[in-house]
Prior knowledge:
With 268 residues, the chain is of the alpha+beta class. The protein is built from eight helices and 13 strands.
Amino acid sequence: MIDPQRVAEIIEEVAEQEVLPRFQTLADHEIIEKRAGDLVTVADLETEKALTRRLADLLPGSRVVGEEAVEADRSVLDLFEEDSPVWIIDPVDGTSNFAHGNPTFAVMVGLSQGADLLAGWIYDPCGGRMAIAEAGSGAYLKDGTCLQVAKGSDPGEMRGPILAGLPNFPELGARIRERRNRVDAVRSLRCAGQEYLRLALGENHFALFTKTKPWDHVPGVVIHREAGGFGRLLDGEPYTPLDSAAPGILLAPDEASWVRLRETLVDP
């Protein structure tokens, strides 16, 4: 349906034009607080505009759901209910890091149709790494390096971040936080894209996220799955772009590891 390498090139080109020139050069008026602790920059806005235009042109008949477009109009999410393929864009994932001069950020693009997650791209502009995956075709870096998740182990020996801020599910959040010492919990990078890169490169075994917005997870779930991993919502259901209000998603090396991790961290 598309050339994944061409999509990767478009992402790189837009990042070179709109993201990197603004890194560590943002003026105060180019950083806006959407709500307490949630930032958007001119780089987010201009990158999303450019990717929206170019990706829609690349695949005629496709629609686009971007993080900032949804911020302006939540009805954009209704596009997931249609039959058309949908591009999902996170123009600068890890905006707070980016705005504060921290290179731990990413540009993320996914492609879905209905509940099917078709493809994902995660670009690390400062590190020069581009992860690519198509359903059924494996996951790899743009330079051809194959991606493979870490091997499963006992929960106490598995390493990964736990993001358990669950204001709508306080009991669940408290239970997960209380149990984090049962695994090798590591500090979050505050960037979902970079966390997914660590998973796909085998650097971490698992990740538990409690925010499930499609722009944060569709690209990464595809890449993680195609790199051999197993991911599900905490209730055991497959993740889809419609699950933005779910209580959380757990990514693991394989199904058996996923079950053990959920029993260790989540189950009553």
